[in-house]
Structure to design on (896 residues):
């Protein structure tokens, strides 16, 4: 927590970056739940819209293959806990996924209701209804089988690690989860917009997952600093790496060290960990560089903290943005100005404090490659947030030693079962090649790897 | 503009929409509201002898709902009017006087003795009402006392009571039938034999709407116990349509006027009853669900339909569907249909496939060249229509008649000439029959 408080206190003097721009009521309103949960009546009525399709397209579109029509049918018949069990049996983080999944590009996009009426069944909200209902009266899901005496080390307590730990513990293995940060949850706890997961839901979910028993959580233990992969391989029967991504891409411009230039991921983490939103400093004029979910989460939250002008700048067109159309709408509804076809070329500043970002207009060239037009535009800013992608820092698992795992394109290479090149070591989530920066996909990786680890341990 | 006026056994009304004898017609206040809303007539809630009966003080109604709480069926354990006879008679006279152009029929139920029936009929006649309806239908409560459906289930009693009432009054007599009987033609024939001017049907269906799985008691539950009630509403309409058709096409009752009752909710429902021979319809559940205003939709919709079809009066299409109701044995076995899925309308839910695959004839694909695609295989399709019924999109799947060539399923050439079971070679009794009808 002290590092969070340090970050909160580090308001640069002589800049227009300030905390406490709003009244307590405004903060409460701005950071309330993004969607009202469905009432029982709404859930039952909505459940009736599901056609119970054959070979359901929604289930195929779900990375964890939740039997969506079945859980919806159970809601409709009043068996809400049964609905939640259908969800948790496929996705132990079904509660968070109901909140943060881009359903508009997954299950809800596949819903056949779109074809006839452009209005899918609201699967995400129904999933939230079922999982909330279950979590109100259950400490956890699943029962632990008799102990096997086998031990597994899970590195990283994000979605992949938690899913793997739960599945392995359920099989009776003893699991130790090592987490570098003071709190478990990974991006769910540190990286996702606050209004998507209110009331400390990420921590409640961690407790829910770990309550199965047989899991020891060790926080403040970073791979390469406090623990070593080689030691884990020798001390445990298997190792799962759910390391996530540790750094953000740099702009590669002079002046990135100026006051007011921030990395959006750490800024969101500071905001998420702040005991009070009024303590979080934000610029009067904010420029967010990037076109993904993190850029939207940072831009929207900057507005919600009271920034007057927030401009999200992306070098390509809107259709190329990683943020879904729905997320883009969220940004626009919240007053974020969207500028496309502009690439940053220089940071402007005075006395070590950023004052603006200079962009060059871009266009799609005849060859299909993005090219600069030569036209420049300066956007004044008190705060500049970089959100142009995160990178995996492979140090602790790479190198020329016998303990190194094979990498490709800077990520860990795994087979279909999540096995790395190194015996006894599996990996999943954003740190592996093919990771898509989605909670739900990380859960699936953890689930698959756990199945493979279990088979290997019991084989 | 179609003329919706009807003359039903001499009783005139501005439209064929009457309110059935039930809670909505229990008193002056309600009936006046109904007439102001536009209803063509009412059958006043059943009168009995004093002292007035008593109702339970707990719940009287039960229901079947869809998930979005649409009322699919309602049932009740309410008895006949629980107000003194004198009060009802006075109000009937007042309302009839105030609304002389509307039909005012009074429903009656008294013990099965001639003097009881004669006495009440005489008193009702003095109100100036247009006719009476004999309630031989209610299946709950009063039936335990030898009235209602316990009379309607014995054709001899129906004939006897009808005869008493006809003898006691100049008024037209409608006999209301219970569906809680094996063959509806027998009570209808008995009513006709007793001199009834018309029959009305159906009254409610004996029912338990649900069982409370905490109390382990039927609903509605009165202090932990429940009693069967009478069910009405959209769910009973198919039962009513069949019973109406049975009477309309029975030679013994052909031409007997029928007032259609049973789940009439929209103008379309009313038109269907009329097409099966009904001279008017009586409505209850729809009004109890939505209020009296729905009659506006019914009047407007029926009128628009008639204009579109070129029918100037109800009589222009009344009974038009009756000749097309037949016995199974006379259905054309040479009529061959196949389901067709309109790929532009298909939303690819796959319900047609799984229904056919699991429960019927394995005649619908789900993958074609590895792609999700639902298509009927004519060589397996028996034309059963299940896929049409389970498809959530209107008109996406239709049945198309094969008029030439060979049926790919049977390999037999398509014959267009009519041939039914009575002459089919597989019918052991066919030798002595001729193709009839």
């Amino acid at each position: 927590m002290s590092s969070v408080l340090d970050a909160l206190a580090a308001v640069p003097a002589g800049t227009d970056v300030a905390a406490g721009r709003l009244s307590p009521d405004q903060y409460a309103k701005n950071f309330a739940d993004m969607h009202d949960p469905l009432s029982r009546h709404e859930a039952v009525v909505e459940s009736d819209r599901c056609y119970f399709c054959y070979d359901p397209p929604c289930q195929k579109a779900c990375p964890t293959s939740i039997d969506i029509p079945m859980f919806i049918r159970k809601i409709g018949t009043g068996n809400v806990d049964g609905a939640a069990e259908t969800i948790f049996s496929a996705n132990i983080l079904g509660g968070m996924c109901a909140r943060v999944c881009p359903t508009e590009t997954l299950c809800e996009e596949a819903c056949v209701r779109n074809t006839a009426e452009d209005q899918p069944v609201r699967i995400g909200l129904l999933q939230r209804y079922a999982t909330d209902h279950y979590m109100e009266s259950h400490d956890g899901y699943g029962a632990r089988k008799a102990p096997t005496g086998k031990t597994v080390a899970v590195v990283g307590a994000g979605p992949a690690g938690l899913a793997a730990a739960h599945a392995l513990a359920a099989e009776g293995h003893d699991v130790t989860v090592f987490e570098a940060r003071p709190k478990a949850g990974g991006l769910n706890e540190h990286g996702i917009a606050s209004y998507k997961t209110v009331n400390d839901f990420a921590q409640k979910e961690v407790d829910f997952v770990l309550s199965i028993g047989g899991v020891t959580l060790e926080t403040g233990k970073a791979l390469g600093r406090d623990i070593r992969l080689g030691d884990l391989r020798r001390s445990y029967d298997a190792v799962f790496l759910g390391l996530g991504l540790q750094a953000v891409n740099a702009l590669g411009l002079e002046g990135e060290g100026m006051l007011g230039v921030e990395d959006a991921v750490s800024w969101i983490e500071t905001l998420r960990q702040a005991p009070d939103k009024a303590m979080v400093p934000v610029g009067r004029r904010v420029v967010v560089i990037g076109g993904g979910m993190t850029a939207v989460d940072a831009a929207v939250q900057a507005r919600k903290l009271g920034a007057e002008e927030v401009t999200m700048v992306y070098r390509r067109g809107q259709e190329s943005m990683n943020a879904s159309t729905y997320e883009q709408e969220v940004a626009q509804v919240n007053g974020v100005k969207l500028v496309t076809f502009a690439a940053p070329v220089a940071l402007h500043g005075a006395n070590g404090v950023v004052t603006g970002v200079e962009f060059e207009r871009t266009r799609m060239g005849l060859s299909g490659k993005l090219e600069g037009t030569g036209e420049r535009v300066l956007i004044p800013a008190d705060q500049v947030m970089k959100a142009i992608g995160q990178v995996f820092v492979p140090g602790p698992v790479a190198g020329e030693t016998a303990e190194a795992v094979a990498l490709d394109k800077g990520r860990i290479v795994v087979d279909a079962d999540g096995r790395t090149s190194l015996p006894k070591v599996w990996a999943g989530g954003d740190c592996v090649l093919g990771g898509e920066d989605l909670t739900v996909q990380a859960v699936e990786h953890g689930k698959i790897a756990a199945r493979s680890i279990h088979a290997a341990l019991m084989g | 503009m179609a003329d919706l006026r009807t003359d039903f056994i001499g009783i005139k009304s501005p439209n064929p929409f009457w309110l059935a004898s039930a809670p909505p017609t229990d008193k002056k206040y309600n009936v006046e509201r109904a007439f102001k809303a536009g209803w063509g007539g009412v059958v006043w809630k059943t009168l009995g002898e004093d002292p007035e009966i008593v109702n339970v003080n707990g719940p009287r109604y039960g229901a079947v709902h869809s998930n979005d709480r649409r009322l699919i069926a309602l049932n009740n354990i309410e008895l006949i009017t629980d107000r003194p006879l004198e009060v009802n008679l006075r109000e009937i006279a007042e309302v009839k006087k105030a609304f002389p152009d509307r039909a005012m029929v009074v429903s009656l139920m008294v013990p099965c003795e001639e003097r009881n029936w004669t006495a009440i009929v005489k008193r009702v006649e003095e109100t100036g009402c247009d006719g009476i309806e004999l309630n031989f239908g209610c299946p709950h409560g009063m039936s335990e006392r030898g009235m209602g459906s316990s009379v309607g289930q014995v054709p001899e009693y129906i004939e006897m009571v009808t005869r008493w009432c006809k003898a006691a009054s100049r008024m037209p007599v409608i006999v209301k039938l219970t569906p809680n009987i094996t063959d509806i033609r027998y009570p209808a024939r008995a009513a006709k034999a007793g001199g009834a001017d018309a029959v009305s049907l159906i009254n409610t269906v004996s029912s338990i709407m649900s069982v409370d799985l905490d109390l382990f008691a039927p609903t509605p539950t009165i202090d932990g116990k429940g009693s069967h009630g009478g069910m009405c509403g959209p769910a009973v309409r198919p039962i009513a349509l069949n019973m109406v058709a049975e009477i309309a096409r029975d030679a013994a009752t052909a031409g007997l006027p029928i007032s259609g009752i049973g789940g009439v909710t929209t103008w379309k429902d009313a038109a269907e009853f009329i097409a099966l021979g009904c001279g008017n319809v009586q409505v209850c559940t729809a009004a109890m669900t939505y209020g009296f205003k729905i009659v506006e939709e019914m009047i407007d919709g029926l009128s628009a339909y008639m204009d579109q079809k070129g029918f100037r009066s109800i009589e222009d299409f009344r009974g038009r569907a009756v000749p097309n109701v037949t016995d199974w044995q006379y259905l054309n076995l040479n009529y061959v249909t196949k389901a067709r899925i309109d790929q532009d309308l298909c939303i690819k839910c796959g319900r047609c496939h799984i229904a056919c695959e699991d429960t019927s004839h394995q005649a619908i694909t789900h993958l074609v060249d590895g792609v999700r695609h639902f298509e009927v295989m004519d060589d397996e399709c028996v034309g059963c229509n299940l896929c049409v019924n389970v498809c959530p999109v209107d008109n996406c799947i239709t049945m198309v008649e094969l008029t030439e060539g060979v049926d790919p399923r049977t390999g037999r050439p398509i014959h267009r000439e009519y041939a039914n079971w009575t002459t089919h070679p597989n019918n052991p009794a066919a030798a002595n029959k001729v193709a009839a009808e």
